[in-house]
Amino acid sequence: MSGFIEGQCRSQVTLFPESLDEYVAEDNDVRAIDVFVDERNLSKIGFRIEPNATGRPAYHPRTMLKLYVYGYLNRVQSSRRLEREAQRNIELMWLTGRLAPDFKTIADFRKNNGEAIRAVCREFVVLCRKLGLLVDTAVAIDGSKFKGVNNRNRNFTKAKLKGRLRQIDESIERYLGEIASEDRREPKASKGKVQRLTGKIEALKKEMVQLKEMEDQVLSAPDQQISLTDPDARAMTSAGRGKLVVGYNVQAAVDTKNHLIVAHEVTNDGLDYGQLASMAKQAKEALGAETLEVVADRGYYDGSEVLACEKAGVTAYLPKPQRSGNQAKGLFGRRDFVYDPEKDEYRCPAGEAATYRFSREENGKMMRRYWSSACTTCSIKDKCTTGVQRRISRWEHEAVLEALEQRLDNEPERMRMRRQTVEHPFGTLKAWMGVNPLLTRTLPKVSTEVSLSVLAYNFRRLLTIIGTQQLIAAIRA
To answer: How far apart are CA 267 and CA 247, in angstroms?
Structure first.
């Protein structure tokens, strides 16, 4: 006796269960996956379920979808890894009926059924809504950067090319200086080093020619940016770490009750600016709500987006960023001028009235201009403006933004709720995906991949909240 738990001898005959079903417990997650996929009308969703009249029979979309849902639920996103798991994983053998497609077949299914897979993700949100797990009154919206299949060295922008060309010029000048120094020494001793430096200079000149050719392509591109590996990937700054990421910006609207993702979208725009109304409308439609409250951070702040939300029945909560150039100069900011809606005028820090003068269109917005005639004789003018008069611009729908600011002042806890709600799903997704979160290229394929990850996240949340047996019963109901 060794005193430790010992395994059985490998040569001992074992009587395995006669049925594969006996290996899978009644509360195993794969049973919920099996029921969920079987209950979907795949033809209506968009999958092609009619087999070809000739040729080798194909795998049924139901089998392939089960394989992918299981894979993303268990952090196995790669088609090659899924191929291996299908050959050795008892749960997958039970789920697919011991079918083991090759990796190319698995990858092609994801590539060719993107829209249908995204529809399955939306259907799962509908299921969550039927179960009463979604709050139809409030969601939190945020975006996060996901690294794409494109190295930073294979992404080119105008600024990056300019910086690299400057580095090459400096390197060539330094090498030429070293060659001149070597020439003043013993010729035989410095001959080898001179040859090495000459070779480096020639390589840099070739790179310079290539970069100048690339510069012409970058300048002709719509957004003056080119990615060689994934043409849709874009360089964007990750606000959390302040570093450059070449990839995609994933937008998500998250339920404030159970942290379920009710709507998502993949974009290669590095800014959240301009995404608020679109995400709010998608969330409102997914929840089937007549009105909705959305909370976002200051990166989404845009007057036109807030106005679009108001018109769509969405009440927005987000802080206003301080972008005043005057405050940076030590002058009075816009907040120091108080608007009187009854008199339609502003009261300046000196107590003078800045009255309405005229209106004009600026960047597609109708702006009203105000200023006071007392600016020229004001005793604190040097703290207000460097011009003749301090002129104030007011958007014709400025009242919508003032109401937004007042709402947030009355309910500052909304921003804390936003952090606790929407940052949790992104952290979970990135932890599941690993160091290289995205495996596919181009925007449509990445959108499909993210939809599978969102589906797996929501699936796991539902299993955690209500359990496997109740989920199966709810799907069948």
So the answer is: 9
Count of CB atoms situated within 10 Å of the CB of 162: 12
What is 52-111 written as a DSSP string? PSSSSPPPPHHHHHHHHHHHHHTT---HHHHHHHHHH-HHHHHHHTS----HHHHHHHHH
Q: Distance from CA of residue 439 to its chain's centroid?
A: 15
Q: Supply φ then ψ for residue 245, to 5 degrees.
A: -125, 130
Cα–Cα distance for residue pair 73/459, rounded to 1 Å? 8
Q: How confident is the model at residue 188 (pLDDT cuts 50, 70, 90)?
A: low
Measure the CA–CA gap between 457 and 398, rounded to whole angstroms.
39
Question: Residue 119 to residues 50, 276, 278, 388, 477: CA-CA distances in angstroms?
Answer: 19, 22, 18, 59, 21
Confidence band of 240 (pLDDT split at 50, 70, 90): low
**Token pair of 417 as six digits:** 């709720």
Alpha carbons 277 and 304: distance in angstroms, whole number:
9
178 Cβ contact partners less than 8 Å away, ≥ 6 residues apart? 193, 197
Length of the chain: 477
Mean pLDDT of 69-83: 95
What does each C-alpha distance from 184 to 174, 193, 202, 209, 211 come to in angstroms?
A: 16, 13, 22, 31, 34
Lowest-pLDDT choice from 35-39, 127-131, 375-379: 375-379
Residue 242, pLDDT score: 60
Phi and psi at 155, nearest 5°, equal: -120, 130
CA distances from 97 to 34, 63, 78, 310 (A): 11, 9, 21, 51
**And the tokens for 48?**
């092609």
Q: CA–CA separation, 293 vs 302, rounded Å?
A: 17
Question: pTM of the predicted model, to two decimals?
Answer: 0.87
Report the distance separating Cα 251 and Cα 278, nearest Å: 10
* Geometric angle at alpha carbon 253, from 126 and 459, rounded to 5°: 45
Least confident range of 264-278, 285-299, 322-336, 350-364: 322-336
Average pLDDT over residues 252-267: 94
Least Cα distance to 280 among 250, 249, 305, 248 occurs for 305
- Band of the pLDDT at 320, cuts 50, 70, 90? confident
Long-range pairs for 406-411 at CB < 8 Å and ≥24 separation? Answer: 407/315, 407/317, 408/317, 408/318, 408/319, 411/317
**Is there a contact between 316 and 296 (Cβ–Cβ < 8 Å)?**
yes
